[in-house]
Amino acid sequence: MYAIARLIDQAADRGAELTKHLLAFARKQPLQPRNIDINTMVIETAKLLRPTLGAHIEIESTLEEDVDFSAHRPSQLSTLYLTSQSMRRDAMRTAAN
């Protein structure tokens, strides 16, 4: 139960971050990229994906040990990762039919 509550809390934090970026975009304010640990972003985003993709799909991530930080907007990378994984899920469904 605690793990589910943590996932909900993390999803709320990501939603707040995304809302902040959307509001900044609407006001035409520049968004400041910041250094992101890619491995941590992949791990945290994969936690959000598990319930979305379904129990029949297993997520396996191969992470590099010495990854440099990347200067991006966090929501930009998370969105890219979530979109690519959702597209893979849809492709697997199509191939299965």
Spatial strand sequence of the major β-sheet: 1-2
Number of strands: 2
Mean pLDDT: 76
What is the approximate shape?
globular
Helix percent reads 55-70%
Number of helices: 3
Main sheet attributes: strand count, strand direction, barrel closure: 2 strands, antiparallel
Percentage of residues in DSSP E strands: 5-15%
Label the structural class: mainly alpha
Global Rg: 15 Å
Which blocks of ≥5 consecutive residues have pLDDT under 50?
Answer: none
Features:
97 residues, 3 helices, 66% helix, two-stranded antiparallel ribbon, globular, mainly alpha, 2 strands
Walk me through what this model shows.
The chain has helices spanning 2-26, 38-53, 74-96; strands spanning 34-36, 70-72. The chain has 97 residues and is mainly α. The protein starts with a helix and ends with a helix. 66% of the residues lie in helices and 6% in strands. The model has no long low-confidence stretch (mean pLDDT 76). Strands 1-2 form a two-stranded antiparallel ribbon. The chain contains 3 helices and 2 strands.
Question: Topology of this structure?
Answer:
Blueprint: H1 2-26, E1 34-36, H2 38-53, E2 70-72, H3 74-96
Antiparallel strand pairs: 1-2
